[in-house]
Records
---
Amino acid sequence: MLPSTQKYLLEKIRHTELSAPVAVIATEQYQGIGSRENSWSGGEGNFFASFAVDLSDLPKDLPLSSASIYFAFIMRQTLREKGEEVWLKWPNDFYLGVEKVGGVITQKINQTLICGIGVNLKNSSNGFKSLYGDILAEPLLEKYLKKVEEFPEWKQIFSEYQIEFEQSRRFSVHIDNYEKSLQNALLCEDGSLLIEGKRVFSLR
C-alpha cells in the first residue's frame, strides 16, 4: 500500500534515489493524484502504478504536451487485448461506455517523464465504475510495459486515436475552470484541440 504511486516515484526521482526506467505498483492507494489536482484512490484489486522514462527514449515525433494521450492509448490497447471495450476520452480518461473507469497523468522532472495510471479493475471507487473482467494488476502492468518499451511512433498512435476521438464529442472538458463541450472541437495532429478558436493542450 502507498499513499500515491505517483508521489512516491516523483520523490524518489527528485532525490535521485531511483532513476528511469523504473516502475512501481501498489495494491492500494489512498492519496492518488488525478486530473485537475483531484484524488484517485481505491481499494485492493484495482490498478495503481507509475513508471518513469527518460525523455531521450520517447519517440522523436511525440509532442510532450500529448504524453498523457500517448501512454493512455497504449493502456487502452492493452485493455482491449484483454477483452475490455475501454475507450479513451480526450485527453486522459478511460471510459467503458459512458462511465469513467480510470485515467492517466504525466509529470516531467528534468529529463524524466513520470506517468501514473489508475484503473478500477475490480471495485468501483472515486464515484466511478469498474471493469467487468477478471484482470490482475501485476500481469497487466507487465503486458503494458512491454508495449510501452516498443515506443511506437506518435503518428501511429494518433492515427488510431483520431478515429476514437469522435466518441469524446458527447462529453465536455474543464478548461481554465470552465466546462467546454467537445461537440465541435477540432483535434489537431499534435493532440491539442481547437475549441471556440482557442488552442487547448492536454498537459496532464
---
Amino acid sequence: MKVLITSRLYPSSACPSRGTFVHNQARFLAAHCELDIVSPTPWFPRLPGLGKWSAYGRVGQCELRDGLTIRYPRYLSLPGRRLFGQAWRFYLAAVQRTLPRPPDLIHAHLAYPDGLAAAHLAHRLQVPLVISVHGHDVNEIPAANPRWRTLVAAALQRADRVLYSSTDVQRRLLELGCNPDRLDYVPQGVDCQLFRPAPARPTHRSGWRLLYVGRFDERKGIGVLLESMALLRQRRTDIALTLIGGSPVSGTGATFREQAARRGLEGCVEFLGELPWDQVPSRMAAADVLVLPSYYESFGIVLIEAMACGRPVVATRCGGPEDLVTAQTGVLVRPKDAEDLARGLAEVLATYQRFDPAAIRQYVEQRFDYRQIAAHVASVYHRLLARGANENRRVDGPACQP
C-alpha cells in the first residue's frame, strides 16, 4: 500500500518544531505502509530578519528525518494571506511536480489549502482521500473569510474520510457540512517510549516546578500565566516556572520577559526558548506540573506528553483539553482568567499526592500511544482501499468547483 502524505505543516531542518505531530504519526505509519511525504513550502529568498519567511528560505528541497524522505517543493504563498483563495492551485502544482510515484491513497493534513489540493489530485488519480484536520483549518480559516469557508467545506465534503481529534473539532466539522458517516475520531499521539516518568519522583526541597511548553504567543495564554504566577507568589515563594518555546513566527518572547520583569518574577520564571524536540521529555519528567493556559486548543499534545511522564496538568477549557483532562490527571480552569488559573495550580499543588503517576501514565498508554494511533489510521486506509471506488470520485465531473 503506497500512501502519499502531504502537509505544509511538517518539520524541517530550518523549522524543526513545526508540525512534529504530523511527522511522528508518519514515522509510526511507516511500519504499516510505504510512504511518500511531500510538504510544499512557500518560496522565499534567503533574507535574514524576516521571521518565518526567512526560515522558509533555508528549507532544503529534500531532507531525511528518522529514516523518512521528505520533499519540500516550493509554491507561491504571500504574507498576509494574499491570494489565499488561490493557494490550493499553487500547492497542487507543487505536489504534482514532486510526486515520486502514483499513490494508492492520499492523506492530507489540514483542510486548506492542503486538503483541497489533495481532493483534486485524488480525483485525477482515482484514489481515496483522507484529510486530518488540526483545529485552525476548521476554526480560524472559515471564520476569517466566507470565501475561505467555502473552500474548506469543499475539501472536507470531497474526502472519503475526515479524521478529527476532539469533540470541539467534530462539532466544527458538522457545522461545515461534513457527512457524520465519514468522520473518524483519531486523537493526536505520544511516543510513550520517549516520554517516560523520571527514574525517581522529584523531591520538593527546592520548591515546586511548573512547566509550560509551546509557542511564545499571547493566544497561548502566557501573559495570563505570568499574572497567575504573580498572584501565587503573593501567597507562597516555593513555586518556579520554566517556559520552553518560541518559533520563527512568535520569536523568543521578549514581550513576556518584560512582563515577568515588571511583575518582579525574574528569580522564579525562566525562559529557555526553543529546545530540540528530543530534549523536551526529560524536562517534562523533571517538572511537577505541566500548565497549558491557551485561549484555544483543538487537542493539546503537550498535555498527553506530560501525562505520559506521569505528571498532572492544569489546562484551560478551550476545546481539546476537555476531552483529555480528568479529575485523576489534572484540573481545568477558565481561559483568560489569571485568578482561576492560580486557583487551579494551587489546588493541584495542595492535593498533589492524589495524582498517581503510574495511573496517569497508564491512562495515556491505553489511549494515545502512537503505535495504537498508527494502527488505527492504517486500518482506515485498508477499509477505503477494500471498498474500492467512492461515489465522490466520478469520472463525469471535477472533484470540486470552489
---
Amino acid sequence: MAKELVTQVKLQVPAGSANPAPPVGPALGQHGLNIQDFCKQFNDRTKDTEKGLALPVVINVYQDRTFDFVVKSTPAAILLKKAAGIEKGSPTPQSKKVGKVTIKQIEEIVKQKEGDLNASEMTQAVKIISGTARSMGIEVE
C-alpha cells in the first residue's frame, strides 16, 4: 500500500552543509520530521557537489512522518553569475549590462541543468538560459 503524501516542502539548501538552523529546521520541524536525519542524508547525497552552492530540494512528507527528497540542479541565475564573474544581476538589465558570457559557457550550464530544463534540443535550452542571462543584464556573445 502506498504511503499517503501530506505535503511537499521546497527549500534551497547549500550543498554539503545542511544543518538544523533556518531554513531547514523550522520548515521540517513543523511537520514533525527528524531534522538531523534529513541533514545527514542531504549532506551525503551532495558531498560531490561544489560546497556552498545553493541546491533546490523538494521534500515529500508522508503521513507516518517519513520523508524522501529530490535534489534539483542549481538555479540558472546562480550558474550565470558564477560564469560571468559577477556578484549580482543588473537592477536595469535593458540599459546597464554587468557582465558577459559566451555561448560555450551557456552550453556548459545547459549540460549541468539537463534534467531540469523543459527543452528537447540543445538550441532550445540555450535560448532558455540566454533569456535568463539577458534578464539579469548579462550579455551573451
